[in-house]
């Protein structure tokens, strides 16, 4: 063999060896190769599920809802629960999942006790590992919990608690509220009756609740040009309001605006002393249907309400009314649409985050986020995460077939009109 042929033969042999080595490396990446087996182990979860990205995307979104499901506020808690369940159904088109992740709802009864509310919230966060908190029926319960949202870096949707301090002095960036707050109620009350030159007297219990409510109302009413001619504060446990009402009659206001809560209401005495016959119109917030049945003496009253089922005119509310009738044989009540709105806000945020429930990411998405609710469009105000929303100027009227005065719409109070002061 010549030298040139020998060199050519050796080069050919090297090429064959190199090709065989390459083929061997490709084979080691096949189904039976050790590298592939190790890769498979790293991509599977502990339970042998799909790869980490896929398994994370299929893990349920867990929502812990705190509500008064027993006790004095049981009616409110159950309204929230019914609305929340329907809200998840509506927002997910009945799939009960978002971005490929099923939604799991865990309800806990706070018993309207702040200590119990905190205990139940810790259970939801530490044992159930929820991604969101929602609640609660009581402002006291809610204030006992809001700091945990920040500590555990979980979004908390406040519904239906109204205390201003939740999105005021006790605010933290993980708190968002679909419920209206006390100042929104006051602003709505003022917007319903206040105008340039209108004279208004007020009646409220001598308590923080009563005085804070009137303070917010007075600020809003005077801002619209009205004059507060008298403020009456009987004891919170009063049962005789004769002296207070006599002073109101003597002040000759155009309106009497009442802030009251509790069984010892002044409505019967207001009716007995015929304020409306003396030219003094009565105004207050129309409550839930059960409480409306106690307000028969106030037929003709002008005021406001957070919600009554036939006031909003939109597709979401139409759906809610129909589903409540189908599933519960009744109409949605005062706090039902709030529960639905809270659920819709969570699903909308998760759609935008593509299923990522990380608190810090959701904050960026939810600040300024608008979403459709039974009350129309709500928007989380970036400064304090309070949902700006419509309320309703109404007159209580008798209607055939109803055993309570029915709120009849005067006009919708827009989110811009009812926007409360920023207090954080």
Question: In summary, what is this structure?
Answer:
This protein has 424 residues and is an alpha/beta fold. The protein has helices spanning 3-28, 34-43, 52-58, 74-91, 114-126, 139-143, 146-151, 182-193, 208-223, 242-251, 267-272, 289-292, 315-328, 336-353, 359-366, and strands spanning 61-67, 97-98, 101-109, 132-134, 155-158, 175-177, 199-203, 227-232, 255-258, 281-283, 285-286, 302-305, 370-373, 376-380, 387-388, 391-397, 406-413. It folds into two domains: 58-180 and 311-388, Rossmann fold (3-Layer(aba) Sandwich); 184-305 and 409-413, Rossmann fold, CATH 3.40.50.
Outline the fold blueprint:
Layout (H helix, E strand, L loop, with lengths): L2 H26 L5 H10 L8 H7 L2 E7 L6 H18 L5 E2 L2 E9 L4 H13 L5 E3 L4 H5 L2 H6 L3 E4 L16 E3 L4 H12 L5 E5 L4 H16 L3 E6 L9 H10 L3 E4 L8 H6 L8 E3 L1 E2 L2 H4 L9 E4 L9 H14 L7 H18 L5 H8 L3 E4 L2 E5 L6 E2 L2 E7 L8 E8 L11
Parallel strand pairs: 1-3, 1-4, 4-5, 5-6, 7-8, 7-9, 9-10, 11-12
Antiparallel strand pairs: 2-3, 12-16, 13-14, 14-15, 16-17
Helix pairs in contact: 4-13, 4-14, 8-9, 14-15
Protein name: Branched-chain amino acid transport system substrate-binding protein
Pfam family, one: Peripla_BP_6
Keywords: Signal
If strands are numbered along the chain, what order do they take across the biggest sheet? 2-3-1-4-5-6
Q: Ranges with pLDDT <50 over ≥5 residues?
A: 2-53
- Which percent bin holds the helix content? 40-55%
How many strands? 17
């Amino acid at each position: 063999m010549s030298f040139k042929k020998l060199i050519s033969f050796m080069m050919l042999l090297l090429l064959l060896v190199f090709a065989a080595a390459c083929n061997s490396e490709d084979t080691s990446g096949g189904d039976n190769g050790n590298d592939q087996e190790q890769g498979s182990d790293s991509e599977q979860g502990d339970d042998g599920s799909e790869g980490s990205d896929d398994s994370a995307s299929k893990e349920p979104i867990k929502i812990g809802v705190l509500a008064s499901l027993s006790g004095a506020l049981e009616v409110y808690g159950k309204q929230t629960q019914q609305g929340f369940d329907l809200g998840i159904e509506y927002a997910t088109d009945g799939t009960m999942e978002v971005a490929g992740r099923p939604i799991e709802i865990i309800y806990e009864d706070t018993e309207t006790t702040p200590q119990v509310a905190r205990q139940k919230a810790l259970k939801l966060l530490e044992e159930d590992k929820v991604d969101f908190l929602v609640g609660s029926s009581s402002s006291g319960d809610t204030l006992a919990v809001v700091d945990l949202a920040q500590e555990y870096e979980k979004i908390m949707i406040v519904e239906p608690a109204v205390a201003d301090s939740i999105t005021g002095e006790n605010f933290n960036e993980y708190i968002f509220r679909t419920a209206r707050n006390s100042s929104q109620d006051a602003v709505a009350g003022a917007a319903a009756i206040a105008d340039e030159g209108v004279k208004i007297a007020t009646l409220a219990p001598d308590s923080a609740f009563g005085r804070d409510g009137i303070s917010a109302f007075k600020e809003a009413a005077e801002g619209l040009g009205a004059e507060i001619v008298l403020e009456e504060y009987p004891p919170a446990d009063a049962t005789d309001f004769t002296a207070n009402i006599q002073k109101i009659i003597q002040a000759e206001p155009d309106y009497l605006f009442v802030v009251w809560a509790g069984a010892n209401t002044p409505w019967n005495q207001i009716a007995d002393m015929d304020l409306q016959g003396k030219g003094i119109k009565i105004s207050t917030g129309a409550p839930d249907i059960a409480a409306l049945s106690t307000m028969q003496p106030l037929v003709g009253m002008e005021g406001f309400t957070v919600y009554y089922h036939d006031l909003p005119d939109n597709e979401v509310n139409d759906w809610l009314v129909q589903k409540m009738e189908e599933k519960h044989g009744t109409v949605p009540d005062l706090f039902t649409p709030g529960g639905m709105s809270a659920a819709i806000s969570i699903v909308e945020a998760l759609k935008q985050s593509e299923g990522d429930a990380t608190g810090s990411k959701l904050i960026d998405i939810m600040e300024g986020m608008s979403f459709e609710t039974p009350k129309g469009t709500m928007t989380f105000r970036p400064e304090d995460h309070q949902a700006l929303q419509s309320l309703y100027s109404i007159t209580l009227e008798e209607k055939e077939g109803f055993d309570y005065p029915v709120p009849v719409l005067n006009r919708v109070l827009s989110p811009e009109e009812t926007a409360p002061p920023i207090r954080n």
